[in-house]
Amino acid sequence: MITKRFHTVSAPKPHDFIFAFEHQQIYLLHEKKIPQWHEVSHLFQSEQHFYCFAESNEACYLISEKNNIADSVDYIKTHLRTTGSLLEKNNFLLACRANHLDHWRKTHHYCGVCGHENKNKADEQALICSQCNHVSYPRISPCMIVLITHGKKILLARSPHFPINVYSTLAGFVEPGESLEETVHREIFEEVGLRVSNLKYVRSQPWPFPDSLMVGFTAEYLSGEIHIDEKEIEDAQWFDMDSLPTLPPLMSIGRELIDTYVAQFK
Ligand SMILES: [Zn+2]
């Protein structure tokens, strides 16, 4: 259970989690676990700064300034996406949150208004400019993801960036001034040329690659023939649920939308 309360703690306790990243690669102990303070404290000088970003049973610290873990032979570096099957779910969610904040902090060293250095804001999860006091909050990019259904058929598409043979649901970022529902209709029409109706919100999922919040819907096919936007996707097809292609990994909300819909017919 992750609590959302922002707090600051002066020094880590022995069982607090210590997160270190290089972009979206996370450092784990060889036994595939997130290091705790008592396991890494020997790598750090006592005056080195750690940033506390969250708490569960243990507090969580982000190594944002200097990464001594990278020089140690006791750690492996692995892409955060692959840790969904290695870590307990709650720890994976903590790692996702840490990576989201790590990316935000590393891209907001300086104030966007006056260019002076940002520093931690003491009373909330934010950075404040040392010169003009402009406050920067963590960036979160809402992105709708939708499963289009037509009875026992579902529409799946593949992006050129997907692993070979994998098909998934459609997704797209919300634009300024748009409601989530408008995004769903626009993206579907842009990407595959179809009209849909009866949108249903299913659930959402933080997706820190680098800073998305996925908002999951189902929508029923209404009209149109598949006409793909070749800049975005390379193929889209109606699949009978008895003969589905290779699907995205279980931890993804796209996969959950598919599995949940298909399960209704079993
Ligand atoms: Zn400023």
Throw out a few tags for this protein.
six-stranded mixed beta sheet, 15 strands, 266 residues, alpha+beta, three-stranded mixed beta sheet, 2 domains, binds zinc ion, Nucleoside Triphosphate Pyrophosphohydrolase, 17% helix
Question: Short summary of the structure?
Answer:
The protein is α+β, with helices and mostly antiparallel strands and 266 residues long. The chain has helices at 37-40, 89-106, 180-192, 253-263; strands spanning 17-19, 21-22, 25-29, 51-55, 59-62, 75-79, 118-120, 127-129, 135-136, 141-150, 153-158, 170-173, 195-207, 212-223, 235-240. The site of zinc ion has 8 residues, from loops.
Write the layout of secondary structure elements.
Blueprint: E1 17-19, E2 21-22, E3 25-29, H1 37-40, E4 51-55, E5 59-62, E6 75-79, H2 89-106, E7 118-120, E8 127-129, E9 135-136, E10 141-150, E11 153-158, E12 170-173, H3 180-192, E13 195-207, E14 212-223, E15 235-240, H4 253-263
Parallel strand pairs: 1-5, 10-14
Antiparallel strand pairs: 2-3, 3-6, 4-5, 7-8, 8-9, 10-11, 10-12, 11-15, 13-14
The site of zinc ion has 8 residues, from loops.
